[in-house]
């Protein structure tokens, strides 16, 4: 088992550090925030404010380096990687994948890179919000891009599984389109809903209950983090916003002209049912030989069907895809 | 203490029945659903499928009648009220207030009516989803309309407080405008978000985590209930939809042209902070003499400031308004 070096000790990086330690990996962390480093050390973890030191150690031990900083800080961290660990086995947990892939290709072309994104988080941030069990049962998107070697992918998948997650093989493009709809659009809609409610004053907020509280929860996330992830996925977020605007405009038009919201409410109900059905679905076990020539295609097909990899062992990835189902 | 007759034994009516029994009121229920009535009886409650029987008993004992059916069924229930208990002390828990007020005026003009709306609920529905503690700490909007006598209002407020809620005095107009923003718009946005996510297929839903799950939760509510409340509040919902469309369109335009979502994300964050601040705010105790000539105005002013009534006793309403505060 390779050692692990985590760069960035916020919610996600701090949780990776804790979960990797719990999985008995040798793990150390680095962050620019003296506060996060001091907090990690106070809890007995190996952490430093010196990125060069942490990265040199990673190069020396051929460790996995996990980049866990916001998109806006990736370029700067990668210039340190290029200097101190240019050929390292590298992954990241940033919420957009095409932009990171491009920066990596430019900044550390010789790194063995596999982009990743654990679908876990809270409205909280920083070291103190992290937990060793943050990834338990969560999906961990892991990219197969042009040039990704399956041996690297399998090693990072193994780490993600050890941290408690289930791995979803995906291309950077499909990942970014998906998170635009299920992560970035929810943040924008939560902001809009919160603002429309609050602009009506205290009586309105005083009457707010479950539907408003749930619908606006992620609007409490730190502004810089939300901006980094939404603005960083601009190309994929624009069509998702257009889809939402189109559907909301159609709802408005239908309510004004006919008094009916049937199409909107039914589509939403059916979609929520599909989500519940996917989560509860019977599933079929799948075994993919990672040495087979079509292994990458098989992994991506599994991801596109809503499947997940739950084990990587002996040169094979074992997982489940939804179905057979009565839907 | 007056007896209570609850018409409709779904989530809200069933919870009123349970909570009123717990508060040691004499209470009985009536519903058209044989299933709900059988379930209520099986748990030891006094329930019947005969509305005329339940309402005649209410007239005889001068009980409070609580209408707890969807808006679309109100007219039909009120024709029974007009026949069997035309001058009863009447309230309702329907999610829109102007339409109910108008139907009551037309159908049972002699009833002593005070419209109400407890801000509590779940995505579940039916008798089995109800709970005696559903209203604990919840806001219960209670209308002061033209012609509402404060003595009636105080009696219904007393009942709502006994059920565990806090009472928000409000006009039907302000209520409907407020719930359009904090209840009906969240349902429409949840439906839009769910549909935009699901139309992208199983990979997208497989990656969905907290922000999508929370943002779409209320899309799981029964379609007929959501349609009844949103379509029933059409006049107030249209401007709320326009506000959301305007803000979402501005976000889209800004992202496309400048790459920034700053204005949207900041407004949403500030609004969510305002919600948290209102809930955590220091508050000042207020006592309103219900026999004073300006009592109704004082109650409505308290509601508009985000205040709540927590006690009705000895001809006075006692409550709290937010502030002083450091905001």
From TrEMBL, chains A, B:
This is Prephenate dehydrogenase. It comes from the Bacteria. GO terms for biological process: tyrosine biosynthetic process. Signal peptide: none annotated. Its EC number is 1.3.1.12. Residues 2-286 form the Prephenate/arogenate dehydrogenase domain. Keywords: Oxidoreductase. Belongs to the prephenate/arogenate dehydrogenase family. Coiled coil: none annotated. It is an enzyme of class 1 (oxidoreductase). GO terms for molecular function: NAD+ binding; prephenate dehydrogenase (NAD+) activity; prephenate dehydrogenase (NADP+) activity. NCBIfam families: PRK06545.1-6. The keyword Oxidoreductase applies. The keyword Oxidoreductase applies. PROSITE patterns: PDH_ADH. Gene3D superfamilies: 6-phosphogluconate dehydrogenase C-terminal like domain, NAD(P)-binding Rossmann-like Domain.
